[in-house]
Amino acid sequence: IKYSSPKKNFDIESSCIRIIGNVLCDCIWSDFEDKTMECLDNIKYLQIIHKLFNHTKLCRDILWSLSNVLISNKGISWIVTYEPIIIDIVITATNHNDTLSTKLQNDAGWSLCNAFRHSTSKQKLILLKCGFIDALLALIKIDKFQSQQIQKITYFMEKIVKATVVSNNNHTDNINISNENNEEITQQSQIYVSQLKDILEQKGDIQLLKNLKKILDIIQSGFIG
Fold this sequence. Notes:
Blueprint: H1 11-27, H2 33-42, H3 45-52, H4 56-67, H5 73-79, H6 83-94, H7 102-118, H8 121-129, H9 132-139, H10 147-172, H11 179-203, H12 206-219
Helix pairs in contact: 1-4, 6-7, 6-9, 7-9, 9-10, 10-11
């Protein structure tokens, strides 16, 4: 992968990335995971594929090779050590240049959602820093709405996600806060969810509501220390 083929058709690189993806998939829940990632770290694998991420042909293979890693906390810990890769996935999810397929864009968005679900509080903050919320907005097709609606949707989504992070922090750090405060956070979050749903319902697109439900189910489930 490091030494790109002279003809730039990327067939060799694509095959190599797929092989590594298969290895990562097999190792992800095994005792070999740490050793595999240490080996890839030593050859600067993340830095190498970062340079190839903007090639449409390779983007699909790179994303596939990393998608299984993003459901493992060890894998997430590895990937967040090199933030440009997270930013690459966010760029793929948002697809501002409209050069990628909708399926690839959605796959990138859902991969980030899974990463958020399985990440620690600190890792969640890194995902937010790298543009996680933009990826969520892309999954509910933010570009289909008018500017005033976009501002509201963005505001509500930010509040919902940040409330999730606060709840996660309170849980994992054993912070001694009252039940009333916990309930207040939950209730306020539900208000934002309701307001967000109202805006999406006005669009009359059932798929957007399904995507929102899936997003909420993912980001609001589970706490990892």
